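Thread: "does anyone have the structure for this chain?"

Original post by V.I.:
We have the sequence but no experimental structure in hand. Need at least a predicted one for the grant figures.
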Amino acid sequence: MSNSEIKLYQAWNLHTRAFHWINFLCIVLLSVLGLIMLNKGAIGISGREAGIGLKALHVIVGYVFSINLLLRLLSGFFGPQHGRWSTLIPGRTFKQDIKTYKQSLKSGQSQTFIGHNPKGRLSVLVMLLLLTVIMATGLTRAATNIYYPPFGSIAASYVAADGVPAAEIMPYDKTGTDAGKLAALQSFKGPVGTVHVYGVYVLWVLILIHLIAVMRVEARGDGSLISSMFSGKKYLPRPPVDE
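Reply from O.Q.:
Generated one for you, tokens below.
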């Protein structure tokens, strides 16, 4: 393949690239904080205040993660072509698109794409759905654990005993709470937390698969995927299918 065959295409705008890296950094930081919270006893962190502080820091980073994700979800309706829901959600031709793409891989002249290839589109869709589940369960845990926004006031009002203002309900303090309602809240937040934690485990598996797939595309010379997430521009050796 000569340099004359390589052509430069504008692939990702600034918002898409910013979402990608902010999302990744938040996931790494949230995962580290999550592991510390799950193992705080083993590493010598004790006390209610320390536990609440860790959770508060986790939630604050979670707000950045959530805002970034919500902006990405909205851009699926109004953003650039290659990031829109219409290009990610499988349509009537999806099975044929996958089949054609696989055939092109076997031929040694694989299809190239300015956006995502058919497998990549499905992967991104699954990842965005999983991120949404993680966000929803995380915000729910923030409310039911330490009464943080946006749902914390609802949780505090629910568990407050008759005549006790919600603002007086403190995390991990039963003072002023209704014992029955507090127990019900505990039963509710347990499964939510399980979904949240295991959702993150699944996410990291998907991230690993994603990294392997990206490196395989780079190794085949089918597009500069890694550099395109920095520059926004993608070098392709053949005319893209989705131009």
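V.I.: this helps a lot. Helices lie at 14-38, 48-78, 85-88, 94-107, 118-146, 152-159, 179-220, 225-231.
O.Q.: and The first helix runs from residue 14 to 38.
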